[in-house]
Design goal:
Number of strands of chain B: 12
Shape of chain A: globular
Radius of gyration of chain A: 13 Å
Number of helices of chain B: 0
Radius of gyration of chain B: 14 Å
Distance between the termini of chain B: 41 Å
Order of helices and strands of chain A: EEEEEEEEEEE
Structural class of chain B: mainly beta
Largest interface: A-B, 23 and 21 residues
Number of strands of chain A: 11
Largest sheet of chain A: 7 strands, mixed
Number of helices of chain A: 0
Oligomer: heterodimer
Shape of chain B: globular
């Protein structure tokens, strides 16, 4: 089946530093990937839609300069949390939409970010 | 706008008994609805989806859901719970936007299965 990986699975960083999270579709091509944020015991909130070869589309209230998204190839999207602060600590999840089956999103296992 | 409401934040059942996880939707159009499961430290997995075909949808691991337009519901059921079913379950609706295929998640239901 379709597999999406994320790296790293966990990251701890100091306040003020930047952190990059990778999302890869391993066995399919994804023209569109999505980035979500999940707070403890809460639902997933869509942050942005990442389109291969073009700018990402951000949801209302999400700072595009804070959360930089790059979708350079059909199998890789990256989310960079810039100048991270403790309030950015969260579980970040990506999903990818199969180019050949646009009906379904496949989710990565998530990245736990802790900002000290 | 499309939205879903999961009526129970926690459900506890005994192993071997039926499971019912409730979800109501709000949509001005015929919605596309999904159920996803999230196990600890694993990615969200699609259980089943409804996209305006048969109203009774069968998914993986013995789960099924019935789309009831008159009740605006899409409840998830399983005849007999297994210990491995313990997880977080999300009812999801696909948004109709210019961007297409954006998902709106419910708040989740934590399913606990006891011996």
């Amino acid at each position: 089946g379709a597999v999406v990986s994320q790296h790293p699975s966990r990251v701890i960083c100091k306040s003020g530093t930047s952190v990059k999270i990778e999302c890869r579709s391993l066995d399919f091509q994804a023209t569109t990937m999505f980035w979500y944020r999940q707070f403890p015991k809460q639902s997933l909130m869509l942050m942005a839609t990442s389109n291969e070869g073009s700018k990402a589309t951000y949801e209302q209230g999400v700072e595009k300069d804070k959360f930089l998204i790059n979708h350079a190839s059909l199998t890789l999207s990256t989310l960079t949390v810039t100048s991270a602060h403790p309030e950015d600590s969260s579980f970040y999840i990506c999903s990818a939409r199969d180019r050949g089956n646009t009906d379904t999103q496949y989710f990565g296992p998530g990245t736990r970010l802790t900002v000290l | 706008a499309q939205s879903v409401t999961q009526l129970d934040s926690h459900v506890s059942v005994s192993e071997g008994t039926p499971v019912l996880l409730r979800c109501n939707y709000s949509s001005s159009y015929s919605p596309s609805l999904f159920w996803y499961v999230q196990h600890p430290n694993k990615g969200l997995q699609l259980l089943l989806k409804y996209t305006s075909a048969a109203t009774l949808v069968k998914g993986i691991n013995g789960f099924e859901a019935e789309f009831k337009k008159s009740e605006t519901s899409f409840h998830l059921t399983k005849p007999s719970a297994h210990m491995s079913d313990a997880a977080e379950y999300f009812c999801v609706v696909r948004r109709l936007t210019g961007g297409g295929n954006k998902l709106t998640f419910g708040t989740g239901t934590q399913l606990k299965v006891e011996l």
